[in-house]
Predict the structure of Bifunctional UDP-sugar hydrolase/5'-nucleotidase.
Amino acid sequence: MNAHTPPRRRRLAGASALVAAGVLTALTVPSAALAAEGDTTIDLYNVNDFHGRIAKSISQTDGKPTPRDGDAAGAATLAGALEQLRGADPSTSAFVSSGDNIGGSTFESFIQDDQPTIDVLNQMDLSVSAIGNHELDKGQDDLRDRVIGGQGEGVRAAQWDYVSANILDSATGKPAFQPYSIQEISGKRVGFIGATVDLIGQGLVAPDGIAGLEMGDITTEVNKVATQLTDGDTANDEADVLVLLVHDGAESTTKPGPSDDSDFARAVYGVTPKVSAILSAHTHQTYAYSIVPTGGTVARPVIQTGSYGFNLGHVRLTVAADGSVTAAAPENLRLVDGTYTPDPAVQPTVDAAVKEADRLGAVELGTIDRDLKRAVQSNGSENRGGESTLGNFVAEVQRDQTQRQGSQIAFMNPGGLRADIASGAVTYKEAAVVQPFANTLVVLDLTGDQIRRALEQQWQPSTASRPFLKLGASAGFAYTYDPLAAPGERITGMTLDGQPIESDRTYKVTVNSFLATGGDNFGAFKEAAAKQDSGMVDLEAQVQYFKEKQGQTVAVQQDQRSVGVRVSEAPDGSFGPGDAVRIDLSSLTFSNAADQGGTVSVSAGGQELATAEVDPTVVDTTDEQGRATLEFTVPGTPAAGAQPRAARAAALAAPTATTDEPLVVTLPNGQTITLAVTIPVETAVEPDPGTGTGDPTDPGTPGAGTPGTGTPSAGAPVGGVSDGGRPSAARGDLAFTGADLVVPGIAAGVLLLAGTVALVLARRKRTVEDAPVLTD
């Protein structure tokens, strides 16, 4: 496949004006050294993950600008920096991108199908871009026909080349899009090879939108194209210099090692040394370093600019007279600190887009009583692995708005939540920026077991860019999990409106169209026996939800839809007097809530056994924040030398009644967790004056506290509580369906969130012979 004809070279109108005014007579020279005589220099300026951040957005502290990662310099400032750095002769440089120029955009661009972003990048003379996963948010047809082809009323096509060598047509095995683009820079033919993160294996786009495509290995496919462009055959668009634009990147700012097992690390070292620079993306990290590739002798720059136009990347390549290529150290030039003057030719485009967005977004939808927020990491950045009030709210909205399709449960993927909502009035714009992808809502027929497996898939494959993705869950549904259990066995209980989810029963589950086709590696949703596309867009659902609650202030629910529970193993399968019990709890708080901490307690038979303070420390990438450990000794005195089971038998002959009572954990917010673990609790027995002597040793006396002969009274104090040591912990089976429990061990069970804010876990069987009992 031949590359498209390079787009017509454009100059910004602002550049001509500045030159005419003499402003560009003294340009800022980048840090790279000037070329030696006979050498040719090529300057590359790049961005990645721009995501439609056309408007300036700088953080403030005490009313003063305090830029931090995630801020946006705005399109006009980016254009101004390019004008200044590229100078009066832009033929010696190029402006390129590593993908995600559009998609996941802020409201100004999103509400107008990212046309404003396409317009400003055209004005900036973007030459070529890798295809990012967000370029395919609306499917491959939208990218080909609208973005690249310019089809549609009022649509202006991208005037740059979009390239990817490893998005393949599954029928032919050949690149489905243009794999490379040749640009003439400083009189040299520079071949830009594109590559894209694994869209399918990582579930980054809706599978329906990329039907008929498959992903090739980045290193393999790039090397094929590199060979083609350097084989000496001018018919193959032979290039003098090769550059890789790859929409994939390192997970941290640390330079990857040659043994690192990720697609990106393998590409950094394994892509042929013929490629002189790697401009990366996708992970929103900021780094700039050089690495000698396998089989090479010259270090090549590897750079990523962060995201949103916070930085502008710069790579300078030098082509010697003999054709060899070397590179100066790459650098990220900060755009958000006021160094560069906004370009007056681009600012009107931004202003017009903002004005139109303000008009469209000013409509007030409703009111909420507190902030709706995404989960955060310890550094304040977004944590897609944490439970959030926003995720649960959106899930509940989508369940509510698909009730006519019979929806009972709804889930929301965290990657689909792109902004928080402040308390008070909610405008159309605020609602829209939360979910900018225009997914439709789909109602699936899923069995309880399929729901369980979908929740298990929150723990992502080792190849995924994030280790854990927390699904928002609708009201009425809740579950427990064991964070230390083996993969596939972590979900230990589920309920819907207080009733246990049955593994073979079918439930109506609402998800967005992205999840419905297995997005974000949630393959269990694809297994639905039937699915109904409601035809309702996610944003439409939220608008309608607020409309139906007009005049009301919507209360943001603060209950946890999932809790981590792990209980120490019971000796001989059951706890008795004198046994030490340890309960480890996690996921008790939201990472971004103001009212964190508090006290958690455990009781049995209404008697408190232990308390502990909740540690609200945020745990990055997961949902484990809000931890507490409860430790106590089971009340009662074992008979001398007797095991707990014998002590229990002896207690039955005493003038008390011993009943198996579940352990109930009470959280700071008032939720209660009834564990699937019981302990013996002694209560005094009142003799029945009408039918017996009250002698507890009389086997024929009703009401004496022996099994089956009366109802023991409650209320006697439970004494002897003390901190216990930690026995060895092991996980046992818990059937969330209420099926028989045969293996004692770690206990967790079902949760109740029906009408009240309470979590109730399945009661655990005391002995192998006991039948399981589920408590409400």
